[in-house]
Design brief:
It holds the Pfam family WD40. Helices cover about 15% and strands about 35% of the residues. The chain is an alpha+beta fold.
Length: about 475
């Protein structure tokens, strides 16, 4: 045992009851002090004086346990006689992020994976969570208490690159670096089918209607669309990109597939026509890491290693590079690895190499809040259907479930919005709320949100183009008649 601590300053003697308590504690603790130490302190000191001096160290029972002077208390031990008396109830622990004092968001940490958590999803009406990991497992979690409900078996033999779940929460899909895609029944955990590919699968997603599964194939630089019911191939497009794909996803109508790649390009593939509808080359200045559609299917968000996010019009290929949305390019200090729209497109969430989760106001394009707490890069993010929760997966082997229900009441968010000089209006077309700013030209004339304004602009452009074509055709017909 190490040398004893110095005696504390003398204090007034306690009542008799206190003396009995101290004496009882000392009688329990004295056998733990080697006899040689006692003799060294004072070989002629009376035993009673030694007991009083030892009591003045103010060593409480709790401190003694922490110093391992008493055997640790086992909460699972059946013997009730060994339970200590409950003097002070333990206060309920609150989970807070490590943000600034004005931007604290409650969260819960999910621990259970032994390696990088590569993918995360909400399912079963936001009561369950799904995750995939480099520890070769796909897990189903209880969103309330954070416990693992099921490990889906048989497990892949290599790291899981991505997992997905159908909108009805009946099937779970997972892609692995063992070149397979597996499907399980979510309720029973039974393996439904397994597909073997000749190359690594970087990404996999279920279509919103549950009919298809799309996989991003690495060395083939293509996509494979599979029937989710019988695992038959619907389309297999090789050399779709010039370099390896990083992610793919379906549009809300389950008819188009967007894919992004290390070649910095975006492609939209149509399942019905079996053709590429749109190609955007050099969409970013570095590799594109992820993509996601808005609920209308008119816009696509892409995240990139160039530290930016961009929102694209999938009909025209136009990047929203004007207005407040340009601030989407200034939200992360490192590569952006993931992005996800809320169900009603009211906000967007992104995760990045800087270990943060950014929450964006989509209509105005500013970052509302940055959630901090992960100790390593954030690999994936998801938003619950009720918009109350954000789920993040990280290289630190954990997931975090953030409660953002009261985000608009956070002082830092209110302060920032006031600084922008914004006023809230309701869109006359889609009823979505949007903000107008003092810096806007004729703000009183704005009655539509930015998405409806862009849709109107596209329709006007299409009508103008159609009118020009009709005029041209009329002129040609007139010339032919004259001839």
């Amino acid at each position: 045992m190490a040398s004893q601590p110095p005696c504390a300053p003398s204090a007034p003697e306690a009542p008799d009851e206190g003396k009995e308590t101290v004496s009882h504690l000392c009688k329990e603790q004295l056998p733990l002090v080697p006899s040689g130490d006692i003799e060294h302190l004072s070989p002629k000191l009376p035993y009673a004086a030694l007991v009083r001096a030892y009591g003045r160290f103010k060593l409480s029972i709790a401190d003694a346990r922490q110093s391992q002077l008493l055997p640790p208390f086992d909460p699972l031990k059946v013997d009730k006689g060994s339970l200590p008396p409950k003097k002070h109830p333990v206060p309920e622990k609150k989970f807070w992020g490590s943000q600034e004092s004005l931007s604290k968001i409650p969260y819960q940490i999910m621990k259970g994976h032994g390696h990088i958590v590569s993918s995360c999803n909400f399912c079963v009406d936001d009561t369950r969570l799904l995750s995939g990991s480099y520890d070769c497992t796909v897990k189903l979690w209880d969103a309330v208490d954070g416990s693992v409900i099921r490990d889906f078996e048989p497990r892949p033999s290599a790291p899981v690159s991505e997992c997905s779940v159908t909108a009805d929460s009946k099937r779970v899909i997972a892609a692995s670096y063992d070149k397979t895609v597996r499907a399980w029944d979510l309720e029973t955990g039974r393996l439904l089918w397994k597909i073997n590919h000749e190359t690594f699968i970087a990404s996999c997603k279920c279509s919103p209607d549950g009919k298809y599964v799309v996989s991003a194939l690495d060395s083939e630089r293509g996509i494979c669309i599979t029937d989710a019911e019988n695992a038959t191939t619907v389309s297999h497009i090789k050399n779709h990109h010039s370099r390896s794909l990083t992610a793919c996803c379906f549009d809300p109508d389950s008819q188009k597939v967007a894919s992004v790649s290390l070649d910095k390009s975006i492609k939209i593939w149509d399942i019905t026509s079996q053709a590429t509808l749109l190609t955007i080359t050099k969409a970013h200045s570095s590799a594109i890491s992820n993509c996601c559609f808005t609920s209308s299917g008119h816009f696509l968000c892409t995240s990139s290693w160039d530290k930016t996010l961009k929102i694209w019009n999938v009909h025209t290929g136009e990047f929203r590079n004007c207005g407040a949305c340009v601030t989407l390019m200034k939200g992360h200090e490192g590569s952006v690895s993931s992005c996800h729209f809320a169900r009603d497109t009211s906000f967007l969430v992104s995760g990045g190499f800087d270990r943060t989760v950014a929450i964006w106001d989509v209509g105005e394009g500013y970052r509302k809040l940055s959630l901090k707490g992960h100790s390593d890069w954030v690999t994936d993010v998801a938003i619950s259907n009720n918009k109350k929760w954000v789920l993040s997966a990280s290289k630190d082997r954990t997931m975090r479930l953030w409660n953002i229900e009261e985000i608009d009441q956070i002082p830092l968010v209110i302060k920032y919005k006031k600084a922008l000089g914004s006023k809230v209006k309701e869109c006359e077309v889609c009823d979505r709320t949007f903000s107008i700013y003092e810096s806007d030209i004729f703000p009183e004339t704005l009655t539509k949100c930015v998405f409806c304004r862009m849709d109107a602009k596209d329709l006007l452009a299409e009508a103008s183009s159609s009118s020009r074509e009709e005029d041209s055709l009329t002129r040609e017909c007139g010339q032919a008649t004259d001839d």
